[in-house]
Design a protein that fits this description.
41% of the residues lie in helices and 20% in strands. By secondary structure, it is α/β, with parallel strands linked by helices. Strands 1, 2, 3, 4, 5, 6, 7, 8 and 9 form a 9-stranded mixed sheet that branches. The longest helix is centred in the C-terminal third of the chain and has 24 residues. 39% of the residues are buried.
């Protein structure tokens, strides 16, 4: 008896290029898929099948849209194909299924071609023979349709594996590496455009995020903190729940404002944040810090300013946006949904303390020497800020 049903094939990209640890990455993606579709109706199951994953219902067709909504943002997935799966092997039966698939899918292409991949080498017909037979059947059934091997409107893919699969289009996935497969980093998250994108881009490379936000009441309102919470919620669409550590930063800011020349204040504020973030990284077992610095975007992000901040870190600082221009960052923000949140009119703690003419080419040695003279009073304030931080889970 011929059994035919709708299933979902999940494809992965660069994971397939991993050799010794490919199985590790596959398990991470498969475990995430299973966790995300848990509880959906249909008795869904996820299986590996020759370089990809297969999601199907125990009986009957899968609810494609319901499943895709749960798994479309999983890092490590290159794409999805909505497929017809059948246990038919006879070429005449496969031709009939292909025609029905065209009809049921509402395809109205004026030209097409068929590409067959025959992973099951025991199948009696070669890939080109299968493509020719199915293509001929479609050509004869649909009046006016043409075969175009070079630039067709529609390509029908036929994959002969343990079962046979038919599909036309692939839906693009987010790509990257499975979340959490590359270690953990502390993300310095503000309410601006850049830092949430830095978090997203780094998470896409498999780094687990532990965001930290520096809050300075009464100079900034609770609306600024809400911006950060909302930005974290957007990131959670891709990572799952994350914990955001909200650090009270007012006392540190006021101390530095009183003891540092105005044109150097931004550099010292950033160094203080980096120092607290380093302490937090040690506490949560992170291996790096992540910032939204983009070279030359503002005075505090010149090469000299970045160098003057660097030595405050106890961990490697990742700057995934360093070579991006503002429009590239805005494009990603609009694509993932952080743009409208970031442009809400609430200033962060640094914006309100920026000098009219900040120093753009600070001398790192001079900055370190000044900070050393403040160390006895500054370090306890940094430790107290970390101690008084409040961790909130965002999902």
């Amino acid at each position: 008896m011929v059994d035919t049903k709708t299933v979902l094939i999940v494809k992965y990209g660069e994971i397939a290029l991993r050799k010794g640890n490919r199985a590790f990455y596959e398990r991470r993606v498969m475990d995430t898929i299973r966790a995300n579709i848990k509880g959906l109706p249909g008795g869904l199951r996820v299986m590996r099948e020759q370089g990809r994953f297969l999601i199907e219902a125990k009986d009957g067709d899968i609810n494609v849209q319901l499943v895709l909504e749960r798994i479309k943002n999983i890092f490590g997935i290159a794409g999805f194909s909505i497929c017809i799966k059948t246990n038919a092997r006879d070429i005449d039966e496969l031709c009939e299924i292909a025609i029905k698939y065209f009809i049921d899918s509402g395809l109205s292409a004026k030209s097409f071609k068929v590409i067959t991949k025959r992973s099951d080498k025991s199948y009696p017909l070669l890939s080109n023979n299968v493509s020719a037979r199915i293509g001929e059947a479609i050509f004869e059934y649909f009046p006016g349709i043409k075969v175009d091997l070079h630039n067709p409107e529609t390509t029908l893919w036929v994959e002969i594996r343990n079962s046979v699969y038919f599909y036309v289009n692939s839906i693009e996935g987010t790509g990257g590496l499975p979340y959490g497969s590359s270690g953990k980093g502390v993300l310095l998250l503000s309410g601006g455009l850049d830092s949430p994108i830095a978090g997203y881009v780094t998470a896409r490379r498999g780094v687990e995020l532990s965001p930290i936000y520096f809050h300075s009441p009464p100079f900034v309102s609770e609306g600024a903190a809400d911006k950060v919470r909302d930005l974290a919620k957007v990131i959670c669409r891709y990572t799952g729940a994350i914990s955001v550590n909200i650090i009270p930063f007012t006392d540190v800011q006021m101390f530095l404002k009183e003891h540092v020349h105005e044109e150097k204040l931004t550099i010292f504020l950033k160094r203080a944040m980096i120092r607290i973030a380093s302490m937090y990284a040690k506490k949560v077992g992170a291996q790096c810090l992540i910032t939204g610095d983009s070279i030359g975007q503002v005075a505090s992000q010149t090469i000299q300013s970045i160098a003057a901040v660097e030595s405050a870190a106890l961990y490697t600082i990742l700057r995934p946006l360093a070579a991006m221009d503002k429009q590239q960052i805005i494009d990603i923000a609009k694509d993932i949904g952080t743009f409208d949140i970031s442009i809400r009119p609430f200033d962060d703690c640094c914006t309100l303390f920026v000098a009219k003419h900040p120093e753009s080419k600070p001398n790192a040695a001079v900055i370190e020497r000044i900070e050393a003279n403040l160390e006895e009073e500054l370090t306890p304030l940094l430790l107290l800020a970390l101690e008084n931080g409040i961790t909130e889970t965002v999902s």
